[in-house]
């Protein structure tokens, strides 16, 4: 069995893997294959060049790149330097870019010319005039006057002597990851080297990963799911990674077959699209061994199909950006019911408790807010002391804002977000419970339940449903389907059939946007 090590910095985790087998391939991103030795050299060249640009310990590097090998190089260069990466969502618009750069105080920014129709070079060039801290923009895979190219930095670094910075894993921040903003203004969660390294290592260990494993990384690398249980976990087990910059189900299925992928991490939407692809049965997925499904509520039926149809012993995990993220996970030996209906038990070394509104622990099976503490909990929100104080309380407990239950065996069930709970005529409705039922219907592809204002009941519930291609679904049919499974007050008052649901880049349904959209439509109907 592969031996894992804890209490390391991010750079030390990578160095350990590099020294084990320098000639082993570590990255394939469909444009380049890199060995551990090539990645070791290139990341240190980049670190040396950045130091020549006066980047030192604690300085912020904004990184707006898709799943390319250059992202991993910058990730490691920052780790060697003691600099802090500030990953930027590649879908950000101008005001979002300026907010992140300003709030973080980024000194250097890495960006593409454009990606998925978003003009990153123009965005960052314009932002440079607005953000006093931003000294330099590094162009990746393009050249532009006034910017310094990634390749030029690599060449420059080859001629510089580089000595890595001394890192204190538990104190030094490695990344500032901004929350998606689905519930308001983004907050920058400061994650230390220890947060990332420990969580990524224990995630790999929970999946029983070894050097033979090949990770498919289709979740965005700017998201904590890409940063920790994907990239870091690959290094923790000295494995390899296949980076996918633009998700397409068929491409992913082809890569699993071609590269003999063994670990497939992803959000439920990815697996749903793969399972429902018309050519699904034609691909050889026999190499698949396991993977984490997380970052959004996971429908029961999807877990069962991944295990039976993909032959993948998937584990279900739960966590947040603020917990680095993996906090709980199911076990390989858990049965289908446990794996489908819970997010497993808390990982060793972390603690979880379920509390009432007064923050008093509740009994087994009682719904309350999930609070946690341990190795993955962030240092705090950057430049937001009040928000930090509101989230992290006495003795290091972080209050998640998630509603959950814990049974006598320690298995945790996520019920939903406190802010998403619908109070209809005095009755509490948890959207996730209804969404799970909707996903169990054979005609439903995706679904979300939100609350809408009502003058009589205070709130009513509305289900937005995306029907599978080629299927038809009537309101009365789905209404009766839900009614047969739950109390009548939980049946949505309204049903809306949509072609698409608003999504974040990490695969979460943007419920605030959906709620506003439905609210506007409802108001228009009443006019």
Fold topology:
Layout: H1 10-20, E1 25-28, E2 33-35, H2 36-52, E3 60-64, H3 69-81, E4 84-87, H4 94-104, E5 108-111, H5 120-128, E6 136-139, E7 148-149, H6 150-158, E8 173-178, E9 188-192, H7 193-206, E10 214-217, H8 224-236, E11 240-243, H9 249-259, E12 263-264, H10 268-275, E13 292-293, H11 300-309, E14 315-319, E15 326-329, H12 336-341, E16 345-346, E17 350-355, E18 368-374, E19 380-381, H13 385-391, E20 398-406, E21 412-417, E22 422-424, E23 427-429, H14 431-439, E24 444-454, E25 458-467, H15 475-483, E26 494-497, H16 511-526
Parallel strand pairs: 1-11, 3-4, 3-5, 5-6, 6-7, 10-11, 10-12, 13-14, 25-26
Antiparallel strand pairs: 1-2, 8-9, 9-19, 14-15, 15-16, 17-18, 18-20, 20-21, 22-23, 24-25
Characterization of this structure:
- Helix content is 33%, strand content 23%.
- It is built from 16 helices and 26 strands.
- The mean pLDDT is 94.
- A 5-stranded mixed β-sheet has the order 2-1-11-10-12, with helices on both faces. A 5-stranded parallel β-sheet has the order 4-3-5-6-7, sandwiched between helices.
- Helix 11 (300-309) links the parallel strand 13 (292-293) and strand 14 (315-319).
- Helix 2 crosses helix 3 (69-81), helix 7 packs across helix 8 (224-236) and helix 9 (249-259) packs across helix 10.
- The protein is globular, with a radius of gyration of 23 Å.
